[in-house]
Specification:
Elements lengths: L4 E5 L1 H6 L1 H12 L12 E3 L20 E3 L67 H18 L2 H11 L6 E6 L3 E10 L1 H4 L10 H7 L4 E9 L8 H10 L6 E7 L3 H9 L3 E5 L15 E7 L3
Parallel strand pairs: 6-7
Antiparallel strand pairs: 1-4, 2-3, 4-5, 5-6, 7-9, 8-9
Length: 301
Amino acid sequence: MAEVFLRRLTRWQAEQQREAIADLYVTAYREPPGAAPPPGPTADTGPVAHAAPAGAPSAGAGFPDAPGPGPGAAGGGLAETGRPGGGRPEDGAPGTGLAGGGRTGTGLHAGERAGGGRTGSGFTGSGLTGSGLTGGAWDREAAERARAGAERHGRRAFLDRFAEHVGQPEFGMIIASTPTLVGFAYGFQADRARVWHPGFQTGIPSEIDELTYSRPVFSLAELCVLPAHRRRGIATRLVDQLLTRATGPLATATVDATNPPARHAFASWGWSRTGALLPAAPLPDAAREPDREAWSRRLGR
């Protein structure tokens, strides 16, 4: 397989390549459901974090390369299977997110289902199966989930987020190419209230509160790697390179809590779970995002 090279883009270069970046993002989320990851010692999964609520960073799809058990076909931020119709990533996912961001972002999540439903959070084991919804009711619920997922992870939604994010303070972006574009990660500085909106379920941890009380954090907003190039350590390289110039006391990403591969990837990269986040908005069950949690890594600068 061709060697993959990393390159840092300026803000202007990122804007010029936005269409190609959007193409990659959409492709990553359309990985066929049930695709098994190739054999190998690393787990490069699809987008890991999800898209954030309006006004918040999106850590869309990470693709982790964490050592240990691979993500398999059902598995987030960074598991490797974005699903057709806008399923979410994990790069390890990473669709993504996140990351993240994520909503992390970041992407192709290994546990996502066609049309955006998630294993453990959507069709199976989350309220549809065994919940009394059958026949037409089940079909309507599934269709609504598919529609909501497609809107969240569609090309236009991504381009709208990207247009906002590229103008944020300390914006940084790394792309991976062969020279064809195969992955990217980007992030920026933001106030913690925006990154972790609307807040933690049990309050912000005291140690994190002290670190971020008066200083902005670096948000890993999106992390995405094409399915054919996962499990090669690309996501790990993208995140490491992105953070070399990140400033602030902490880097953070928002990860799909139902995505074990994404969580495993962030842990293997030296990130720690900061806590579970409150729902972004009181939406109907069919339109709700999966449960989110924040992951963080100290930068020491």
